[in-house]
Amino acid sequence: MLLQQGHDVTVVDNLSKGHRQNVPAERLRVLDLADTQALASLLREKECDAVIHFAAFIAVGESMREPARYFRNNVCGSLSLLDAMVQANVKHLVFSSTAAVYGNPHTSPISEDFPIQAVNPYGESKVMVERLLGWFDQIHHLTSVPLRYFNASGCDPAGGLGEEHEPETHLIPLVLRAVKTGKPITVFGNDYPTPDGTCIRDYIHVNDLAQAHILALEYLINGGASESFNVGTGTGHSVLEIIRAAEEVTGKKVPYEVGPRREGDPPSLVASSKKLRERLGWAPQYPDLRTIVQHAWNFANRA
User: Fold this and answer.
1) Mean pLDDT of 267-291
2) Domain range 11-300, CATH class
3) Mean pLDDT over residues 134-149, rounded?
4) Is there a contact between 172 and 153 (Cβ–Cβ < 8 Å)?
5) What per-residue confidence (pLDDT) applies to 13?
6) Among all residues, which ones are annotated catalytic?
7) Tens of pLDDT along 225-253?
8) Residue 303: pLDDT above 70?
């Protein structure tokens, strides 16, 4: 999408989670975020104006088992990147943050002025990076936009790019996998204080999320001050609603079983995206849950 909108792009990935085939070979540099000097050299070589920082581990449950791994990768990796940016005099960063910074909010929808109180190491790692960004702005005038994602979902509408995590932890691809394999998916808890007892999340199409990054990038390059924004649709859907949407799209029953709650899961996370809409002029192109599931199903059935 950046290329389509006239930007020049270099992708840095250590390929521990990413897929080489998804990036044009001439645009990919296989580097680790921990290699500060290599990053600084690349930023100088490419004369970069800005960085969009996505490189993190993202599984809440895993972070509860392996906190050191999450802090090392997510926090130390980000610090290395910021150090490299300062060395190369790159002044703008769009940061992939998360709704998990809000912990277990008591009311909904969540706005950016809610208390920051993460309840798992994954969320805490993102809080720590947001704090680093504040200091780097104050001391080095490095401006940033943390985008607090709600549930990134769906796939490229054309079906060519989609979710390929190993192991897969995201609900929609797991539900669609259950349809294809016949192996039941586990619903983690059905006794939450929600209408049907299952967790509610705000599912945002990945293309709408990508567009928010481009708007944030252009805002910073044009002189905008550091600012945090939620990125979500403002509408919540439960796990059982996702299952019903998948059944509508696929025409097949989703096999599932109910298991115990997963540690660290808040009952409901729904965004207020009012600030993003008003300040950056963002609006979701694909807000409909069925469309999101259809695009994911297209990817699941690609040739």
Assistant:
1) 95
2) alpha beta
3) 98
4) yes
5) 97
6) 122
7) 999 999 999 999 999 999 999 999 999 99
8) no
Residue 105 has pLDDT above 90, yes or no: no
Distance in angstroms (rounded) separating the CA atoms of residues 163 and 157? 13
User: 235: exposed, middle or buried (C-beta count within 10 Å: 0-12, 13-18, 19+)?
Assistant: middle
- Asked if 295 contacts 156 with a C-beta cutoff of 8 angstroms, the reply is yes
Please give the structure tokens belonging to residue 220: 């910073």
Q: Give the pLDDT confidence score for residue 269 in this predicted structure.
A: 86
Residue with tokens 């809000």: 102
Domain boundaries along the sequence of the chain? 11-300
Gap between the Cα atoms of 105 and 94, Å rounded: 25
**Amino acid at position 1, single letter:** M
Whether 114 has a pLDDT exceeding 70, the answer reads: yes
Q: Report whether 166 contacts 158 (CB < 8 A).
A: no
HEC string for the chain: CCCCCCCCCCEEECCCCCCHHHCCHHHEEECCCCCHHHHHHHHHHCCCCCEEECCCCCCHHHHHHCHHHHHHHHHHHHHHHHHHHHHHCCCEEEEEEEHHHHCCCCCCCECCCCCCCCCCHHHHHHHHHHHHHHHHHHHHCCEEEEEEECEEECCCCCCCCCCCCCCCCCHHHHHHHHHHHCCCEEEECCCCCCCCCCCEECEEEHHHHHHHHHHHHHHHHCCCCCCCEEECCCCCEEHHHHHHHHHHHHCCCCCEEEECCCCCCCCEECECCHHHHHHHCCCCCCCCHHHHHHHHHHHHCCC
pLDDT digits (tens, 9 = 90+) for 20-41: 999 999 999 999 999 999 999 9
CA distances in angstroms from 26 to 13, 21, 90, 302, listed in the order given:
13, 12, 22, 25
